[in-house]
Amino acid sequence: LLACMKQLNTRLDQQRIVIFGAGTAGMGIAAEIKRAIMKLHHLTDEEAARLFWLVDYQGLLLSNDPALTDAQRLYARAPEEVATWAQPFD
Asked: What is the model's pTM?
């Protein structure tokens, strides 16, 4: 990721990071990328987590999902953020 950012002449904290799979592996990858962003760009845990969009089998992780783990909850998006998105199965 860092080599890619250098090649594109941009910063990691200016990206939207989408991870498909919010199980233990996906959460581990998100945590490592988040730590790098925090260290390189001096962001807080919450600020860095807002750059991520995690998608699992049920869709985008939303903060109102009671089944989220503690690790997933940090990355979950507020339902209001996506309220105007199209609902293809309605």
From this structure: 0.87
